[in-house]
Amino acid sequence: MKKALTAGLSVAAIASFAFAANSLDSNPNYKKLKNFKPQGVTNDQCLMCHKAQDPGIVADWQHSKHAKVGVGCVECHVVPKNYPTAFKAHPMQGSNWTVQIAVSSVTCAKCHAKEVTEYMNSGHARGAAQWLATPKNKHGYLMTKLSYHYESLKGANQSYMVNGKKMEKGIRTDGPVFQANEKSPRVADLNVANICIQCHGTTIKLDKNGRPDATTWPNDGIAALYPDGGVSNCLSCHSRHKFSAAEARQPGACTNCHLGPDHPMKEVFESSVHGHIFETNEEDYKFDTGEQIPGKTVRAGTCFTCHQAAIGGLKSTHNVSLRLKWNLWAPGSFLRTGGYETAGWAFWKGGGKINPDTVIRGNAKAGNPQGPEAARAEMKKVCMVCHEATFTNNYFQRIDAAVTVYNQYKSFATKMLKDLKAKGLMKSDVWSDPFFKLYYYLWHHEGRRFRHGAAMGSPDYAHWHGVFQVMQDIREMKDIYDYRMKMLKKYGDPKKALANEVPMPVVTHE
């Protein structure tokens, strides 16, 4: 017992040290902005023009808590003239100030240091950096290649930190459509601005005057990377210019991104008992407080209740990873043993510099710094506010079983994939390869639905949208695997084996 207690204290001490090391003051722009005193500017000066030009913006602000406590345009948009996001072409300029259009969490942290720090320690802060191509980030290279070069037809043009020749490697060339935007790469960049970056974020680009570029902004991505080192602008949850905490606590704030075939938390929640109760008893919920009290502010769990709220003796938090035992989105599920997230802090400390050391994949094992069982214990505290111990403990046993079953499927699929790669039996254009497509659907779509359906209490998503389709995938993959091995034996050459393969259209299991 004494050893266990000592070990626990050691983990806590390490976590405390890591927390202290990840200081907001590590970004020089934060310190500059925090101590900045603009001279000769008031909110009324801004409103003289913007009341007429942007009445919707002003109306939202006027109905905000910010307006009630005297926080206005100046506090968020006025910055030093030499600040990285300074808009140099604005018609109003002061002796020591100008304005910024692209406002990041560096500005928010001036008043909300606790909330920004908690967010930076969470998996949310990894959103942009993990999918951007750098020489050190294989995952980022693959995801950037998918969105810019496969989907948006960018051809042999550089994307982020990887050159064009590498980005187009393997993409088929037997039709002009596959590189249709090679001579107009901005079209590809603008198209991606409609898709991945609106939820994940990207590196925000400004022109020489500080005006945001259309390929990266407007952007409310959960972890957009700003020139001042800011990660996110907090607008994914707190929409501009009201910035309502009550709005951000509603399920709708989360389901803006957490929906669809690949991570259908919206649909899973709505088809669960929790979602049913919320849909039919909205009068039982109050979101104007961070504390959730059954019978007063909540009747059944919502996203906020389970992942962030002050409930069951827990404090409210902006670290949405803190109560999670498992990673349920990765190709294979694993315990969250990695402590705090690292990607956001790497960029924050870099002060906005873009290089392979500041834009990193991050920590997919981020969770509770005390370990995965501590995370599970916290989530159980949430559950046991409404459910008794046997109900809660039995429920989590079933979640763990679903993870085990999923990983069994995934392990066998990965073994076949590695064997096919080793023997040269995978097509260079992976999105033309039926085995690869099934592998991707197995983990990225159906496997996630299986795992999240089980974890969030939606039997239809766990079953028919989930494990039932994973079960079909593995059989189709095994048939393709066996066929290719047979063809390799027949021809003795993997290229000939693939060239003589009969067409195998894949029916997606949406």
Automatic annotation (TrEMBL):
Coiled coil start-end: none
Residue stretches spanning the membrane: none
Annotated signal sequence range: 1-20
Entry keyword set: Signal
UniProt key word Signal: yes
Transmembrane is among the record's keywords: no
Cited InterPro entries: Cyt_c-552/4 (IPR023155), Multihaem_cyt_sf (IPR036280), Multiheme_Cytochr_ET (IPR051829)
Pfam family, one: Multi-haem_cyto
UniProt domain Cytochrome c-552/4: residue ranges: 20-77
Stated name of the protein: Cytochrome c-552/4 domain-containing protein
